[in-house]
Amino acid sequence: MTNILARYIARTTVLATLLVTLVISAVLFLILLLGELKDIGEGDYTIVQALFYVFLRLPNELYQFSPMLILLGGIIGLSILSSTRELSIMRASGFAVRRIIMSVLGSAFLLIMAMGLMGELLAPHLSYKAEIRKEIAQNGGQAVVTSSGVWFHIDNNFIHVQRVVGRQLLQGVSRYQFDDKHHLEAAYFAKTLAFDEDEWRMHEVVKTSFYPEKTKSETFATLPWGLKFNPNLLRVGLVEPSEMSLPKLAQFAQYLENNGLQARAYQYAFWRRVLQPLAALVMIFLAIPFVLGAMSVSTLGLRLLTGVMLGFVFFISNAFLGELCIVYQLPPIFAAMTPIIGFALFGLLLSNRMIRN
Fold first, then answer.
1. What average pLDDT does the segment 256-280 reach?
2. What interhelical angle do 276-289 and 300-327 show, nearest 10?
């Protein structure tokens, strides 16, 4: 009997979470689409491409909100059982509160596994693909992404970049300069291209000039870039943390740190992603005492409002601590763990009160 009740509670919680996910998906889709309206008409970016962009971005956005989705699903599922007195009957028949908690956490584990697979295996790839398609459409084909880096076409120059580290730093830059008759005039090979003192400059440069009868090579510590460079083009080659798989995110953060570059944002994103399943588990654990304890006599609407507020507090605290981590050089794992520990302690406090009562 207890196993049947446990499965029933788990099934109700899972179905409620799926319903919440469906509703939030529709809301996020509309919000993202409204945000894209201002970009429609820029270059070759059309409404169809905007719809496709939003569709590809949606799994990533949902994964960012997965702790809140599981929290709201838990509140709704348990509230349904509470409103029909099923939870009261279960408890009166000897089905302990601890068994209810374990049943809900068991369903949460399945949801976390499913969302984790979507968020780590599928969402980053789709999100990156969406950004690439959008940027290429907006810039009229001035940039092309290949397996070896990014190619740019600016005026009479073809530029290859091995790695876009940030919006102000590129590594492994090759620039081929042609005249109006499409003859190669010069080739530049720079270790880095950086935005220094209000202008783009190449560093550790080898310049080869091509003449009808000869070629001439020179080396320079630094040279001005000398081209108008649209910063938006760099977005094609720049991969945001949410668009990387966990292994790639860890590798890129290590690469930045090894080269003396700012890696805190990527390190924080890595630890936040690693701890995302634990955060979701804590949030659904928090849902249980809200239905069975402190808010047992409240309406579903009030419980949902409280759940939404808690979810946003968790989301905002994560964002706030992420910024603090970067500005004040806090340990990334500390910044990622703090909200989880705080909410877990709050949930334990409420659960202990509920069990004692």
1. 89
2. 150
